[in-house]
Hints:
This protein has strands at about 5-15, 20-25, 35-45, 60-65, 70, 80-90, 100-105, 110-120, 125-130, 140-150, 160-165, 170, 180-190, 195-200.
Amino acid sequence: VPMVAPGNVQVHVINSTLAKVHWDPVPLKTVRGHLQGYKVYYWKVQSLSRRSRRHVEKNILTFRGNKTFGMLPGLEPYSSYKLNVRVVNGKGEGPASSDKVFKTPEGVPSSPSFLKITNPTLDSLTLEWGSPTHPNGVLTSYTLKFQPINNTHELGPLVEIRIPANESSLILKNLNYSTRYKFYFNAQTSVGSGSQITEEAVTIMDE
Length: 207
């Protein structure tokens, strides 16, 4: 098997889900056989938005021939990763380079995990929601938009409300009685807005 590990391993984080890694080639005489390529082992150490330590799954990408760089796609935003590089010949892998640590920046969050509308009265509705399963960063706020829908399914004027990130419920007041409303709800990080969840509910006709 090869005798030495690739040196000067560098990681350039391109965005919240993509990084580029490059390394110096090993001297050919240390390969001790036919150079097949380089393998990059990389794994997530932890998510920076929650303290969950889970089973670590190592990802392996093989770059053929004498390539000295490669892309690592599909990373999770706002996470800490480690990687190392090994050279491969027909017999197997050489020793691993020392581990390199890198962090991905924040991304936009996934949609809120649920949106539930309860306690209809003549002029109010109560909204409850769950935070996104993948915040992909630090949540800064939620945005609620809603509008009435009339009997011919035309949409009325859209109202928008910004809600602090630490809230998980809201009572909407001053609504019209016996009216169907459509709600659009999403979460934000400093990077931008995540995908929205939609729901409909009706205020009651009379007490």
